[in-house]
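hi! just following up on the protien thing from before. the input was this:
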Amino acid sequence: MKNNNLYNLMTQLTQESRSLWRIQNEYKKDAGKNKEIAAFWKELAEEKEALIEDLKMVIKIEME
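and the predicted 3d structure came back as:
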């Protein structure tokens, strides 16, 4: 079960990292001068960054 949990956590980390990359490298550019949409992507990117840090911490604990 522990290996499955670790796999699941790492899979989610991968998905969140890819999502963050898309937000930072594509979606923000696509928002252009639309301040509301740009602010939305900025806020979502910050949430993803925090989630990624949490996932890294849980993975580290799970590996011990």
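The CA atoms of residues 31 and 38 lie 5 Å apart.
Residues 2-63 form one domain.
cheers
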